[in-house]
Amino acid sequence: MSFQNPVFIPGPTNMPEAIRKACDMPTIDHRSPLFGQILHPARAGVQEVLKSETAEVFIFPSTGTGGWETALTNTLSAGDTVLAARNGMFSHRWIDMCQRHELDVQIVETPWGHGLPADRYAEILSADKEHKIKVVLATHNETATGVKSDIAAVRNALNAAGHPALLFVDGVSSIGSMDFRFDEWGVDVAVTGSQKGFMLPAGLAIIGFSQRALDASKTAGLPRTFFDIADMTKGYAANAYPYTPAVGLMNGLLLATETLLKEGLENVFARHTRIASGVRAAVDAWGLELCAASPDVYSDTVSAIKTPIGFNATDIVTHAADHYGVAFGVGLGEVAGKVFRIGHLGSMTDVMALSGIATAEMCMVDLGLDIKLGSGVAAAQDFYRGTTGYSLKSAA
């Protein structure tokens, strides 16, 4: 691999130099008012990125997986029923975590490549007259398949059924890159991490709680210590943590939120849509297909690209790393060996995306696939030239 080349994995993402340098700071007393000048503005910045006026933001030294555990252990008790669809590797892992915590998971098996079945959720919720279901899990962007789901439709299913279940959303590979509306969608817990849309190294679990979720935490019976939001709330009141925080990453998060908000969230989302659309134009020019079943579920942060039957898609990823020093994502779970993934989120531009598309083309030609060298690049170039692109004002 090469430190000079950008990465095209769906996280960790490329880091702007200014944000990387913000993480490199002298040691400070993390129980001093100085740390509070980092902590509270960073939390406020995350709240704004979530498009919320009310979400209580918690930031743990962890990853998105720790964020999942924070959501579950602070709101549920052993034996509680959770409704979830399994449509990819990351929804599967959240389900697995629920089961390990002795929760009763009602699973809706969904073909990989498809979005969450909000209509099926509506049927199940309407039939749950005793309101045994305490939480509905929703993966906003399934990173393994390049599929986004309609969270507003899931909320509408809950509302139509008059069901009081909490709505938990995995926004790990969407928040900070794709439109996310905590308040409007009635999200109760949103989970993300530092290493994707926030363009930081891995190391922070970032979670937003609604008031309903905070209320549920008062009676939840699952054990928690490290991820206890009650302890964290007490720490925040004193400009501190209940243990040692990742101060450098927090300082980077502060700058990351400022950077996103300065660019303008709608501009950030439009940039990701534009870059993703160029990648999709390249895939079409190659004569290949996405794992995502239809345009309405295409992800703007990662494209999972299917290769011909009998070809091992992982060979493209290995060849790119060995011969060109470039990182792509492998297929996971049910699509292992069937797709390779191009991540196009976080710190990414049209020009960077073109270099990834060109590298993928070289790999496929090297490995004998019937791809015309330059075809995908040309298709993406045509798209980027015809859309609004880079400007000094929006540069991050």
Domain module count: 2
Helical percent range?
A: 40-55%
Write down the CATH topology of the largest domain.
Aspartate Aminotransferase, domain 2
Strand line-up across the major sheet: 1-9-8-7-4-2-3
In CATH, what is the class of the largest domain? Alpha Beta
SS elements, strand count:
13
* Low-pLDDT residue spans: 391-396
- Shape assignment: globular
Summarize the structure in words.
- The chain is of the alpha/beta class.
- It has two domains: 246 residues, Aspartate Aminotransferase, domain 2 (3-Layer(aba) Sandwich), CATH 3.40.640.10; 122 residues, Aspartate Aminotransferase, domain 1.
- Helix content is 41%, strand content 15%.
- Helix 11 crosses helix 12.
- It is globular.
- The C terminus is likely disordered.
What is the topological layout?
Layout: H1 17-23, H2 33-49, E1 56-61, H3 64-73, E2 81-86, H4 89-100, E3 104-109, H5 118-127, E4 133-139, E5 141-142, E6 147-148, H6 151-161, E7 166-170, E8 189-193, E9 204-209, H7 211-217, H8 229-237, H9 247-263, H10 265-286, E10 289-290, E11 302-306, H11 314-324, E12 329-330, E13 339-343, H12 350-366, H13 375-385
Parallel strand pairs: 2-3, 2-4, 4-7, 7-8
Antiparallel strand pairs: 1-9, 5-6, 8-9, 10-11, 11-13, 12-13
Helix pairs in contact: 1-9, 2-9, 5-6, 9-10, 10-12, 10-13, 11-12, 12-13
